[in-house]
């Protein structure tokens, strides 16, 4: 049987299939998980210019955004944007990574007595660069008495303690007292200002939430740090996908990674035209026809999540 190494992490996948009709490759990689890739992206795109760190972060991105039932679809456009896609994950702090391991354990265990296996290959899932960092974090969580562990050859079997569940439950209540709401949208449309004002007034009417957006006239390192800081402090974010702006995709993905709720909206003709990107189409969007309609739906949605 023909074999091919994983396009992203270059390890030999334990499962590889090609759909002869569409020319799409299906991979099951022990590190990156399940994904589909077009033949063109697989054969033509050269990832040599991408740093190893960026490849590792992208491997984690694929792992976290893909399932066997709904595998992420990689094409040439996506592979050419790897440095931009992974940018938010470069800014995660050590404690955010530690907390993401704890959140993974809490989300995976269904009951108080469920053991969860964490494989050393799983380090990419937490946007770490080496398996050793995952070992360090597991030992730290153990020392803090958040978990009990059994050390196996290539994985740890972990059990959250009551202290661990306590910390996990606190982590889930992110920014519950925050009034800030970050709004991600495409600025380059004639309705952008109206759209922001509509979202702003819907937020205010719900619970006096204060909607903020980034300044579109600036695109430097400072503004990126400001966006990250605003997202981290938000109770939830509103992401409007009209116009398919890449920045909106990254900001929504970053918020999701932090466990911050994301309300997705999109002009209805773009939803109907199936213009939405493969990695967001699987989530429900509020389709809007006009501002009155959007505001009404948004208020109903906000009231449901807060
Ligand atoms: Zn891989």
Key descriptive features of the protein:
Rossmann fold; five-stranded parallel beta sheet; four-stranded mixed beta sheet; 3 domains; binds zinc ion; Arc Repressor Mutant, subunit A; 306 residues; globular; 45% helix; 13 helices; alpha/beta
Short structural summary:
Helix content is 45%, strand content 19%. With 306 residues, it is of the alpha/beta class. The strands form three sheets. Strands 9-8-10-11-12 form a five-stranded parallel β-sheet, with helices on both faces. Strands 1-2-3-4 form a four-stranded mixed β-sheet. A three-stranded antiparallel β-sheet has the order 5-7-6.
Task: Explain what the structure shows.
With 306 residues, the chain is of the alpha/beta class. It has three domains: 15-89, no CATH class; 94-172, Arc Repressor Mutant, subunit A (Orthogonal Bundle), CATH 1.10.10; 180-305, Rossmann fold, CATH 3.40.50.10140. 45% of the residues lie in helices and 19% in strands. It is built from 13 helices and twelve strands. The protein has a five-stranded parallel β-sheet with strand order 9-8-10-11-12, sandwiched between helices. α10 (246-257) links the parallel β10 (236-240) and β11. α2 crosses α4, α5 (94-108) crosses α7 (162-172) and α8 runs parallel beside α13 (291-305). The longest helix is centred in the middle third of the chain and has 16 residues, at 192-207. The protein is globular and about 60 Å long. It starts with 14 loop residues before the first strand and ends with a helix. The mean pLDDT is 88. The protein binds zinc ion.
């Amino acid at each position: 049987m023909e074999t091919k190494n994983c396009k992203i992490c270059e390890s030999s996948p334990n499962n590889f299939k090609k759909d002869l009709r569409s020319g799409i490759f299906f991979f099951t990689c022990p590190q990156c998980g399940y994904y589909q890739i077009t033949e063109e992206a697989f054969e033509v795109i050269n990832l040599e210019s991408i740093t190893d760190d960026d490849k590792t972060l992208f491997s984690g991105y694929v792992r976290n955004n893909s399932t066997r039932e709904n595998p992420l679809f990689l094409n040439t456009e996506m592979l050419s944007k790897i440095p931009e896609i992974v940018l938010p994950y470069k800014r995660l702090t050590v404690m955010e990574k530690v907390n993401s391991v704890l959140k993974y354990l809490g989300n995976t265990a269904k009951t108080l007595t469920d053991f969860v296996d964490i494989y050393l290959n799983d380090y990419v899932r937490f946007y770490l660069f080496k398996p050793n960092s995952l070992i360090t974090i597991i030992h730290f969580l153990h020392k803090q008495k958040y978990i009990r562990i059994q050390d196996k050859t290539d994985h740890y079997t972990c059990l959250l303690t009551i202290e661990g569940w306590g910390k996990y439950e606190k982590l889930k209540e992110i920014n519950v007292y925050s009034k800030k709401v970050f709004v991600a949208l495409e600025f380059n449309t004639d309705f952008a200002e109206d759209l922001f004002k509509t979202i702003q007034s819907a937020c205010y009417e719900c619970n006096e939430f204060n909607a903020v957006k980034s300044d579109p006239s600036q695109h430097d390192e400072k503004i990126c740090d400001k966006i990250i800081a605003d997202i981290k402090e938000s109770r939830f974010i509103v992401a409007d996908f009209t116009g398919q702006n890449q920045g909106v995709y990254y900001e929504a993905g970053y918020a999701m990674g932090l466990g911050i709720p994301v309300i997705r909206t999109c002009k209805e003709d773009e939803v109907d035209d199936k213009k939405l990107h493969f990695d967001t189409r699987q989530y429900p969007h509020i389709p809007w026809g006009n501002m009155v309609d959007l505001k009404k739906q948004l208020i109903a949605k906000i009231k449901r999540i807060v």
